[in-house]
Amino acid sequence: MIEQIDRIAISVRNLAQATSDYALFLGVPPTWNGTCETDGSKHCIFDLQNISVDLVEMRGADNQTEMGCLSSLFLTESNFDSIKTRYPETLLSGQSPTRKSYVSETSGAFTESAIDVPDYTARGLGLALVEKHARLSEGHTKRAFDEKGCLAEVDHVVVNTTDPDGANNLFGEPGLNMRLALDQTVEKWGGRMLFFRTGGITIEVVGKLADDPEARLKDTYWGVAFRTPNIGETHARLIREGITVSEVRKGRKPGTRVATVKSHTLDIPTLIIGPE
User: Is residue 262's pLDDT more than 60?
Assistant: First the structure.
């Protein structure tokens, strides 16, 4: 069973610059930075209250055209040892778990077992199932968020789909079996919105069926929304830090206010959301 989203991975071109920008945006320093010995990738991780954000610079990242892009979701599986019997054979397609080692000169080392959902069954989305709190159980505990105006939680991640039924089969039944909280048709533009909930975070799937059958096999991560208990304080802090942000406005969800962050987010569409 999927217990929560362990982390969001963001592929970046320049890890040092991305870390500086994201620390300023979130209002907190990173928790862990180091290298994956298995593939040589460099990482900087921010542990939030309900998820972690993993900035990843791969080998050859200087060829990446974007400053950053949402690349993967790592999903915590509550019973990793029996993972291959808990999901349809067609989802994992014979994949076997791999174990990666992460080392750091300043933040400690950890290992992690994970199994990737193959690209063709994940509809082009980076998806991996990981053992429960592999990193945090080895001494890397989530911090207390006392900083005024900081961003401590993720509210939702947005996926653009070219086939809502296909996305439903992946995230819901018979695939990952996440709870489908809402399936809504939007008559204004003829598409659908599906909301899958796990661990207090929503995966918001938005789109409509593509005309081209080949295009229906490819979905993409689009953006992320961060939650704050006091959007006024967070908005004021972002402005003080020199971050470009829109005015606060009424949110689509009743009882919320939102603002769009326009800089220091690695060119990833980013929203902050808080109560009225």
Answer: yes
